[in-house]
Amino acid sequence: MEYKLRKGIKTKRLSISIRSDLSIVVSAPYFVSQKVIEKFLESKKAWINKSINFYKNRTKSFVDFDLDKKKREEIKDFVLAKIEKLNAEYNYSYNKVFIKNHRSRWGSCSGARNLNFNYRIISLPEHLAEYIIVHELCHLGEMNHSQRFWDLVAKTIPDHKERRKELKKIIF
């Protein structure tokens, strides 16, 4: 099985991740031997195959486009308009909004109260884009995925579980 190995002094444990291009990345503490890594990979073979099959069966629902400054501003305006509409329920304050070229996530919320969104959000169906924005807004109230967080999301998106499942079927 082919994989990319990343060893780090700060890495605490062995882990495997499957990228959207179906490549396998193994992260390991610096001191772990190749033999231990190979044994770990063998023990996770079923999970790896299951994950790869899952990604192969996901659908791609949008086309890629060049992210020039004009397009980034257009996307930011789209996101800011959605934030203004959806944040009326929560009235959270946030710092800055960034449009980024994330490789594996739709959005994030930083401890500095910055909201980050993948530029591909504009290509999603509106109900999924709104779910992502509400999800990140709710992190301003709860910086975790506790039941309180999901209760906040449900105030605006009561069918958030179905939307999340639908979103997981889309790859970059």
Written description of the protein model:
This protein has 172 residues and is an alpha/beta fold. It has two domains: 4-56, no CATH class; 69-168, Zincin-like (2-Layer Sandwich), CATH 3.30.2010.10. 42% of the residues lie in helices and 15% in strands. The chain has a three-stranded mixed beta sheet with strand order 1-3-2, with helices on one face. Strand 2 (15-18) and strand 3 form a beta hairpin. The longest helix has 18 residues, at 69-86.
CATH domain topology of the largest domain: Zincin-like
C-alpha Rg (nearest Å):
19 Å
CATH superfamily of the largest domain: Metalloproteases ("zincins"), catalytic domain
- Strands ordered across the widest β-sheet: 1-3-2
Whole-number total of structural domains: 2
Tally of DSSP β-strands: 6
List keywords for this structure.
172 residues; 3-stranded mixed beta sheet
Quick rundown:
The chain contains six helices and six strands. The chain has a three-stranded mixed sheet, with helices on one face.
List the helices and strands and how they pair.
Blueprint: E1 4-8, E2 15-18, E3 24-29, H1 34-43, H2 45-56, H3 69-86, E4 97-100, E5 107-109, E6 115-118, H4 126-138, H5 147-156, H6 160-168
Helix pairs in contact: 3-4, 4-5
